[in-house]
Amino acid sequence: MTVSPNALTETDGDLMRFDKSAETIRRNSQWISGGVNSNFRLNIAPTPLVFESGEGPYLHDVDGNTLIDYYLGMGPMILGHKPKALVDAVKTQIDNGILFAGQTAVEAEAARLVCELVPSAERMRFGSSGSEVDQAAMRLARAATGRTLIVKFEGHYHGWFDNVLWSTAPAAGQGGDESAPTPVIGSKGQLPESADELVVLPWNDLAVLEARLAKGDIAAVIMEAAMCNQGAIQPADGYLEGVREACTKYGTILIFDEVITGFRLAPGGAQEKFGVLPDLCTFGKAIANGFPVAAIAGRADLMDMFTNAGVVHGGTYNAQPVAMAATVATLKSLTPALYDGIAENGNALIEGFREIFAREGVTAQVVGFPQVFHVALGLEQPARSYRDLTKMNKKAYVALTTALLQRGVRALERGAWFMSSTHDKAVVDATLDAMSGAVKALKADGTM
Ligand SMILES: Cc1ncc(COP(=O)(O)O)c(C=O)c1O
User: Fold this and answer.
1) 7-82+335-444, superfamily in CATH?
2) Which of 224, 285, 291, 296 has the most ligand 1 atoms within 8 A of CB, as the residue to mutate?
3) Quick one: which of 284, 316, 302 has its CA closest to 98?
4) For residue 91, what are the contacts with CB-CB under 8 A and spacing of at least 6?
5) Ligand 1 atom at shortest distance from the alpha carbon of 294
6) Which positions are annotated as active-site residues?
7) What's the CA-to-centroid distance between 49 and ligand 1, angstroms?
8) Which residue's alpha carbon is nearest to atom 7 within ligand 1?
9) Strands (E), 166-217
10) Which of 48, 84, 408, 412 has its CA 20 to 30 A from that of 181?
């Protein structure tokens, strides 16, 4: 596809269109509320998309477009779409049966791999979604400490349930004082009193956390060890170490929510990358490359409370054998060479974006990790906390993702870019061409 500098106005014929997706969403809305099955797939510009198939880094939609995919299922597809080893393993398992409500060799193999890869995983259990296993972790922490309060951080997301859907993405000015944020509710219908057991604090501020933990009444601190749901923000130097020390000192359970970072930043997740071990940690997404698998892992004495201390953890689909086959196939694929490849291509993309923005005079920050990074328009400095991210130019960024989509690149509107092992140099180069064309077009029409 050729892209002229002012493609939006002069070469509309070259730009991809999504009319059939829009039409299909409209038709499907008679059966599916909003035509989508998650609120996070609603209100996407120019329309939520409808796909026919995916392969490697590409998605094929109902309009006949082939898109380079950086959603990657919102993070899971670290091996890209439809990796052969996984597809073969899943087909073999289906031939053996689907669900037994009993134990299987494949789940034990998956569990062994998790415990080998994740530094703090002495013991583990499988679940079906990140939201669920985060609930399990908080329940364990409360049972272990006899306390009820949980510290979570502004901008961190730990699932959509009432007790944690607070201050996940508050608008600028909504959360009050930065050092003592007011919890901001996430959904209509959510119990207001579900925040009674929650303390919302700013992330990356050790002094504030230490002062709160010193009261000795916090059951758990739950955090993304690198903040990747919003932005892709690194922990400040010494922050995770300080949090670890303070949690130990005040008898608080430290939970790392590694639903995004797990198996993505490194085989052992953020805890391996940063060398700080939590008491409990949770996983999802990249653990099974697209199958609905999640896990909770950590200290054996805590995890065994599910067995010997009356703490309940359940789920009809936990360790479903087909999903376990996908988990084993995924975890066995996580070789050092795979991470090297993602690092090389992810860094090339990050550098390439920075060069394009610099060349075009666009103020932007491209930060994070080669496996998952974030593009923030309008920021002079890299964001260090959620409050910094509220200063991004979101409107321009949505226009940018729309212009990218029209040029064959699908990127999340919130600024995150997920990489897979199938995003090679040719894919990176095509993405950089699209970014260059999109930025030029938006500059030409005054959006940027
Ligand atoms: C950090 C984090 N924790 C938890 C969740 C919830 O996981 P799930 O959507 O599988 O329930 C997500 C989902 O995006 C996440 O990013």
Assistant:
1) Aspartate Aminotransferase, domain 1 (3.90.1150.10)
2) 285
3) 316
4) none
5) 10
6) 157, 257, 285
7) 21
8) 130
9) 198-201
10) 412
Compute the C-alpha angle 28/32/34, nearest 5°.
85
Block residue for tokens 């959360």: 175
| Domain parsing of the chain, residue ranges | 7-82+335-444, 84-332
CA of 212 to the centre of ligand 1 (A): 26
Atom of ligand 1 at shortest range from CA of 229? 16
Pocket perturbation via mutation, ligand 1, pick of 77, 229, 264 by most ligand atoms within 8 A of CB: 229
pLDDT at 68: 98
Please provide residue 32's backbone torsions phi and psi, each rounded to the nearest 5 degrees.
-105, 125
Per-residue pLDDT reduced to its tens digit, 78-120 = 999 999 999 999 999 999 999 999 999 999 999 999 999 999 9
Across the range 380-406, mean pLDDT stands at 96
CA of 157 to the centre of ligand 1 (A): 7
pLDDT digits (tens, 9 = 90+) for 8-42: 333 566 899 999 999 999 999 999 999 999 999 99
Say if residue 133's pLDDT is above 90: yes
Cβ density class 252-274: b for 16+ within 10 Å, e for less? bbbbbbbbbbbbbbbbbbbbbbb
In our burial notation (b when 16+ CB lie closer than 10 A, e otherwise), range 346-374 reads bebbbebbeebbeeeebebbbbbbbbbbb
The CA-atom distances, in angstroms, between 301 and each of 116, 123, 298, 308 are: 18, 9, 9, 10
Q: Whose CA is nearest to atom 1 of ligand 1?
A: 259
Ligand 1 contacts (CB < 6 A) are 74, 129-131, 134, 157-159, 224, 229, 257, 259-260, 284
Token reading at 5: 């500098």
Coil/strand/helix, residue 26: helix
Pick the CATH number of 84-332 from 3.50.80.10, 3.30.43.10, 3.40.50.300, 3.40.640.10: 3.40.640.10
* Model pLDDT for residues 407-431, shown as the tens digit of each residue: 999 999 999 999 999 999 999 999 9
**Residue nearest (by alpha carbon) to ligand 1 atom 3:** 158
Nearest CA to ligand 1 atom 8: 130
Report field, pTM of the whole predicted structure over 0.90:
yes
